[in-house]
Amino acid sequence: QVQLVESGGGLVQAGGSLRLSCAVSGSIFSINALGWFRQAPGKEREFVARISRDGGNTNYANSVKGRFTISRDNARMPVYLQMNSLRPEDTAVYYCAAGWDNSYNYLGQGTQVTVSS
Question: What is the 3-state secondary structure (H, E, C) of the chain?
């Protein structure tokens, strides 16, 4: 089992920044990827960003590329999502996820991000 706990959400004005953190614990050798997803009201959950366990490979949704950065330091440190130039359409509950390749078996409880115009 892998446990994921997100933090860092909040209310910010458009153009502002937030950094989300995801604490990772448990059987981390059963996963090789960590990611962030988000779900806005009335919409399906969507992929935001992904990072390999060693931090060497990252992928981003086109909607956040150039504005968001996913990172981690080593196998036990939190996974971060630095979000810059935030837009009202970035408003959503953000979830940390973990799994193998593109199959995510574990999901955190989510943290709310609200961007005001």
Answer: CEEEEEECCEEEECCCCEEEEEEEEECHHHCCEEEEEEECCCCCCEEEEEEECCCCCEEECCCCCCCEEEEECCCCCCEEEEECCCCHHHCEEEEEEEEECCEEEEECCCEEEEEEC
Q: pLDDT per residue over 20-37, tens digit each?
A: 999 998 888 888 899 999
Reading the block at residue 27, the tokens are 């059987």
Reply yes or no on whether the pLDDT at 5 is more than 70.
Answer: yes
44-53 tens-digit pLDDT: 999 999 998 8
Whole-number Å distance between alpha carbons of 115 and 91: 5
Residues 40, 30: Cα–Cα separation, whole Å: 29
